[in-house]
Amino acid sequence: MVYSQPHVYATIFTLSVLKACALDSYIAAVYEHSVILSEDTKIPVSPEDALMLMNKNMDVLEGAIKAAALQGACIIVTPEDGIYGWVFTRETIYPYLEDIPDPQVNWIPCTDPDRFAPAPVQERLSCMARRNAIYVVANIGDKKPCNSSDPKCPSDGHYQYNTDVVFDSEGKLVARYHKYNLFVTETQFDYPKEPEFVTFNTSFGKFGIFTCADILFHDPAVVLVSKLQVDTVLFPTAWMNTLPLLSASQFHSAWAMGMGVNFLSANIRNSSLDMTGSGIYAPNGPRAFHYNTETENGHLLAAELSSHPRLSPTYPIAVNWSSYAASIKRFSPDDHDFSGVIYFDQFTFTELAKPEGNRTVCQKDLCCHLSYRMAEKREDEVYVLGAFDGLHVVEGEYYLQICTLLKCKSTDLKTCGQPVATAHTSFDTFSLSGTFGTSYIFPEVLLTGVLLAPGEFQVLSDGRLINQNGTSKPVLSVTLFGRWYEKDPPHPQQAFP
C-alpha cells in the first residue's frame, strides 16, 4: 500500500488503536522523506537554529509516524539524514549532534528528559514513539568526548558518528548504531573503532540495524543476518540511484531475497540527487515499494510481514549458485564479445542479436550463461549479456561477480551499461546463471519505469534465475549480483590503525 504524505498534526494524542504486535505477523512502515534542508551547510549555525531546522523535519516525520500507527504499524523506519540533511563539514554538523547514551542505561527521554540533557531530539523522538505506541527508527548524529590519551582522538576533542536510534513503543531507547561504512563524502563523521552488531528483541521478532553503504560490505550486514539470525533488518538510507544495477528498490529487494530476511528500507526523496526508492521487502519478494521521480512529496508505505520468516512455508529454498552453470559447456564463442562500462567497472558483453537463443560471456573465472526468448526482436533496442569479475574501486572498494542481461541506452553498442529507465522489449522466457565463486548472490529483475517484478521470476536450487511465463512489462535488466567478501581489501579503520 502507498499513502501520500500525511499532514502535520498540531496536537499529539495517545494512540487508542490496538495493534497486534505479538503474533506471527505484524505491520511494518517506512517513510520516504523530502528533507527540509539548511540554506548553506558550509556556514556554522547556533544550536538554536540547528534545532529549529530539525524540528521542521520532525514535524513532518511526526505526521508520518502518527499515520503509520493509525494503520496498525508496530514499527516505522525513517531515512538517513532525514532530520538535518547532508554535505556538512565537521564544524558545521556539530550543533546538530547530541550525546546518545548506551541503551543499557534504560532511559525513556520522554519521561526523563533531563537525565542526559541536552537531548531535545531524542526527547521528541521518544515522545513520538510513546504517544503513538509504535517503535520509531531515526537517524541522528552522536558526539562523544575524547582526549589525548586516545591516539585516535580527533584534534577537536570529540568523535562524531552517523547514528541510528530506535525507541520502543513506550519511548525507551533500545538501540544505538554507529555507521561503520561511511560514504566517501561523509567527512563530517568518524569511523567507529570496530563494527557494531546491534540487535534487539521484540514480541514480533528479532531486529538488526545498519545504514546505507553498510549494505555493500560484510560487517555488520552479513553478520547480523547469517550469524545473529535477525528476522528483520532496519535500514535508514540516503541512496542515490545508480542504474542499471544499483537503483534503491532494485538492490535492496534483491539483498533481502539473497540473504533471506525481512528488510525495511526508508530513503530520502530528492530529485537533484536522484534519491528515491523505499520499500518493505520479504525473503520471497517485495511487500510494498515506492519509486517516485515526478514529485518531491514524501510517501508512507505500510505492509504485513512474517515475524519469523525462516519459519514460514514460503521461505526460499537453499541455493547452490554455481551448480547449473558449472555443469554445462559454453553456449557461444567469444568472437563477438566487447567491453563496456557499468558504474566505472569494465564488463565483458555479448549482444543478443537474435530473438531467441543461448549465450555465454566470460570474464576471469566467471562465466554467465543465458537462455532466452524475446516476445519480439525490435530494431530500435539492443540487449546484451554481461559479466564482471573484479574489484570495484570508486566510492568504496569491494569485490563483485555479476551476471546481467540488460538493455543498452541506444542501438550503439558503446552505450551498453549506461543508465536507462525505459524499455519496450518483453521476454517470454529467460534463464540466467553463473559460475560464481561466492554464495552471496542477490537476484534482480527490473522492468521499464524502474519497477520491480514481484512474483514474476524464481530462483532454482541449482542457481538459475528463471522466468517461464513472460513479464508484465518490458525488461530493463535481469541480474545476479554477487559479492565476494573474502576478496575485499581491509576496512579503512583497519587499513590505517
UniProtKB/TrEMBL annotation:
Signal peptide: none annotated. Keywords: Glycoprotein, Hydrolase, Signal. SUPFAM superfamilies: Carbon-nitrogen hydrolase. PROSITE patterns: CN_HYDROLASE (PS50263). It comes from the Eukaryota. The active site is at residues 80, 179, 212. One of its GO terms (molecular function) is pantetheine hydrolase activity. One of its GO terms (biological process) is pantothenate metabolic process. Residues 31-307 form the CN hydrolase domain. The keyword Glycoprotein applies. InterPro entries: Biotinidase-like_euk, Biotinidase/VNN, C-N_Hydrolase, C-N_Hydrolase_sf, Vanin_C. It holds the Pfam family CN_hydrolase. Belongs to the carbon-nitrogen hydrolase superfamily. BTD/VNN family. This is CN hydrolase domain-containing protein. It comes from Mauremys mutica (yellowpond turtle).
